[in-house]
Amino acid sequence: MSLKFRLNLLITLLSLAFILVVGTILVNDTRISIRERVEAASRVTVQLLDTVIVSSALNPEYGQTDKVLLGFLQSLGYVRSSHIELYDIRGAELYASPDSIYKSEVLPPEWFVKLVKPPVETVERRIRYGTLVVSSSAAGSIREAWSGFSQLMWVGLVFFVLLNVLVYALLKHSLKPIKPILASINRMELGDLSTRLPEFKLPEFERIGHSLNRMAESLAAERQLEENRQLTQLIQTHIEDERRSLARELHDELGQYVTAIKTFAVAIVNKTKGQSFDIAPDISSNAQTIVAAANQIYDGMHNIIRKLRPGALDNLGLSETLRDAVNYWQKLNPDIRLSLSLEGNLDKLGETLNINVYRIVQEAINNTLKHAQASEIEIKLALDVKASANRGELSLMIKDNGIGMNMAAVDQSQHFGLVGMRERVQGFHGSFHLDSEPNLGTVIYITIPQVLTT
User: Fold this and answer.
1) pTM of the model
2) pLDDT for 89-106, tens place per residue?
3) At the topology level of CATH, where does 318-454 sit?
């Protein structure tokens, strides 16, 4: 059932209710008016006839009362709202007043007669040589009332029809914008966020159209942002795959060559030991130099591999990888105290989340070591899992006591480390918050909801 039909039906029912109430009031007033009119006419008629009867009795020379009254009634004729009958002493009818001919062409319906007809009142007078009966008659008044009431009914019916036609036309014109609004909403529901509503003349629909257009723009921007995040996450995944592949190749290929070089150099050193020819010491010294260079290459290669892809992440899980990384950073920076706090089962978060959490911690620690001039760095990683579900909330806090920064004067969009961390967090629909003040250090709060733990 459409809104237009419902409103039109409501107006129709209200109009019918109004007409019924007005009709009820009019019928009630008409019934009271007819009753009072008939009663008044009957009293006047009875008083007039009583006067004739008394006058006849006081003046016997006029003749017998029944004869005098019969003559008077015949000359009187029709009396409105009264029916007069005269009977002789034996009960035979001497006279009956004629029926009313007022608006005789009007035939009121039976239901109307029953609604407005007052009860019949009869007055009987015993006279000498006869009986006089006066009965109230509302037929003429009822026909008169029905004539006015029927005209009013026709006027009300015409008004009712015109009102409904006008209301229907007005609703049709006023609710015309609903169709394009619903069509636009359906297109948005199907994914077409490029649809826009035109301007409407009615201010209410204009506000609705403006709000829908802004909502579509926001959804389109959100979709574009989500697509960019998915693309960023895909790029990061490919980068991590390339880093893993490169680290593996460095370890497998270059590591073997470095090991072979070191082995050959050690063998040369061993063979030159105890030799007496003059060039043996030079050969041994050069070979030892090659061994030292091979060791440096091997250590440098492992440092590169650690930065490309921590091997412990694939083998030991996130917890051990973070502990190993913190120990490594602590050895490189003995004057800075690093603390790591781990809570919950952090080894079942999945490869994608593991590497992203590790990269966030790695980027944050590198930034702190380079710029913060901090003496203490605190890392807290916790997974809160509800007992009734296998999903939890992962929270990460990285805090230092360095020089801090003025957040109002810092354009975070120009700090690619912060942008990268924020994009990694938002890729998991998490929240990233950076709190820092000059000389009070910096704190990074990260929350990732709905983490699957199995």
Assistant:
1) 0.50
2) 888 888 888 887 777 788
3) Heat Shock Protein 90 (3.30.565)
